[in-house]
Design goal:
Elements (H helix, E strand, L loop, with lengths): L2 H45 L13 E5 L19 H12 L7 E5 L2 H4 L9 E2 L7 H4 L2 E9 L2 E6 L18 E4 L3 H10 L6 E3 L2 H9 L5 E5 H11 L3 E7 L6 E7 L5 H14 L1 H12 L8
Parallel strand pairs: 1-2, 1-3, 6-7, 6-8
Antiparallel strand pairs: 4-10, 5-8, 5-9
Helix pairs in contact: 2-8, 2-9
Length: 294
């Protein structure tokens, strides 16, 4: 074998050896990452149990929300019945932390008071509270339990009211507020064949729909519930769809609460298992009649 041929073979052997080592490192890192995640989950399940948690009332989990409590987040203005999206989420968190249903107590806290600085007379609050940097300076937030989708709202009886997919919306004339994630969603996800009508305020958007200046409007799902219940009773939610930049809601806790990590752990576990998605499907998509458009 010539010296050149020998050098080529040696180079190939060294390259293969280096590749094998690199793959071994990747496998080791992946294995290590999986083990760390498993360990963290195990530690959470051991530490985040009712008997180990420092709650507002010993042996009880005190959950706050505003009054009146509106659907689809709470049904019959009764958070304790477990019916409605946020009521169901609260009880799911409680169960994950090892609390029995009868150990959950509800208290009324006005929306704006919930994120004011200072001590809290509850363990966590669920009340469609958006996670924002400003609020996070004064209170703690858990991992998000909900990311708001966008919703298409049209007038009952219109052609748009009967669509069942995003593709059906291509030729629709939309009305949207300027500078919103809803406008981004229309342009990036629906990509209609005609430019949407852009308005300065949300009231202008509502007026345009009422006066049939547009076929439909796009707002986030929580706004759509309010819009069809109060502002445009003749309106209907055609459906919802996911888009970047959705508003995130988290359980709100007192600043530096000893419960924050465990509440986040519980929500992360519920998301990982699919239970959180099932709760959202039941109370937001089905019972609230806001089907997912794909």
């Amino acid at each position: 074998m010539s010296s050149i041929r020998l050098l080529s073979v040696l180079a190939l052997v060294l390259a293969l050896a280096a590749f094998a080592v690199a793959c071994g490192d990747d496998d080791d890192e992946a294995s290590s990452g999986a083990e760390e995640a498993t360990t963290a989950a195990a530690e959470g399940s051991e530490e985040c149990t009712a008997e180990n948690l420092e709650t507002f009332k010993e042996g009880k989990l005190t959950v706050a929300t505003d009054s009146p409590a509106y659907p689809p987040y709470f049904i019959d203005d009764d958070p304790a019945n477990g019916r409605g999206f946020e009521s169901a989420v609260a009880y799911a968190i409680a169960e994950k932390l090892g609390f029995e249903r009868e150990d959950v107590e509800w208290t009324v806290v006005p929306f704006n008071a919930s994120f004011a600085p200072g001590p809290k007379d509850f363990d966590f609050d669920v009340n469609q509270i958006s996670i924002t940097p400003k609020r996070a300076q004064q209170v703690d937030f858990s991992s998000p339990y909900y990311v708001a989708n966008q919703a298409v709202v049209a007038l009952k009886g219109s052609d748009v009211a009967n669509v069942t997919s995003l593709a059906d919306l291509k030729d629709v004339k939309f009305g949207v507020q300027i500078g919103t994630t809803s406008l981004d969603a229309v342009e990036e996800v629906i990509q209609p064949s005609q430019e949407p009508a852009v308005y300065d305020t949300s009231n202008d958007v509502v007026t345009a729909l009422k006066q049939e200046q547009v076929d439909a409007v796009v707002v986030d799902v929580p706004t759509a519930f309010y819009l069809t219940a109060v502002q445009v009773p003749k309106g209907t939610i055609v459906g919802q769809f996911s888009a970047p930049g959705g508003d995130e809601w988290g359980a709100l806790l007192e600043k530096d609460s000893p419960l924050t990590e465990c509440v986040s752990w519980a929500i992360d576990e519920l998301r990982e298992s699919g239970e959180l998605a099932e709760i959202e499907r039941e109370w937001i998509s089905e019972k609230a009649n806001a089907p997912v458009l794909e």
